[in-house]
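User: Could you check the structure of this?
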Amino acid sequence: MRARNSIFFGLLALLTAVLFVCDILLGSTTISPSEVWSALWGNTDSDTATIIQQFRLPKAIVAMLCGAALGASGLQMQTLFRNPLAGPYVLGVSSGASLGVAVFLIGTQLLGLEGVAQELGIVGAAWLGAALIFAMIVSVSRHIKDIMVVLILGVMFGSVASAIVEILQYFGSESTVKSYVVWTMGSLGGVTLAQLKIMAPVVVSGLIISIACIKPLNALMLGENYASTMGINARRSRGLILVSTTLLAGTVTAFCGPIGFLGLAVPHIVRMATGEADHKVLMPGSILCGAAVTLLCDIASRIGDVTLPINTVTALIGIPIIITVIVKGRNIF
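Assistant: Sure, the predicted structure tokens are below.
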């Protein structure tokens, strides 16, 4: 089994590297590998250097960060709730972010401030909305021990946020509703270098917390009572997992919009490929596999000169995997 996992991680790392290079090479403008190498070191004409350094390289890095974040957060949610269909947005993080964006867009319209710091404002609004829902969940979880009740409350908070968003859309102008709908489709190419400098450290921090939670996650698979008998502080571990998930899913949603199905599908891909239940294998596997799958989705989203919304591609890849898990009724936990 150990040899099998070593081969799996080796092939996955190689696949991720190849997809990363392909993501930079492919696009509406054909650029050779030698030109890419020269552009990365600044030894080429300004147009090629601009395409690589300002657009393709940041987009490929964002794709890896998004995939790693969603893979790790999805695994944590499925383990914490012991539910194979739990995902990083089950606590209403995505709905909270959507509410923040909707409020920002409608608010700037009503105040006559449309176009003022629009890009940065959407990111900040999404973060505040996600943080608001998270704060409500944490506040409730301090008084409720049953994690399934926390899950249900998260879904309810998310539903309320979605209902408010629909009301705001009803009163919004055509332009603001269109801006909101475009944001909900998800995009990996809208993150600037300045935003990437903010996004990357936050995602890396969330991933570090995820890795630090590997031992508690293994214990929590058998329930919080069992984790307590193993010397694990179940409440503290649960809080760390919720913080990590919100940092990861909230950041991805804020900068790239809600990207669905990856958080659900990636952990199952790793489980099926390795046959493991140990998070020492599943966590790094989900991080690396998430990065590879998102790079693949980004490449697949380009049809000629047209780039499809990333959500459409992740759905086409993720949904069949989820259906397979449901139909086969795999005994994952």
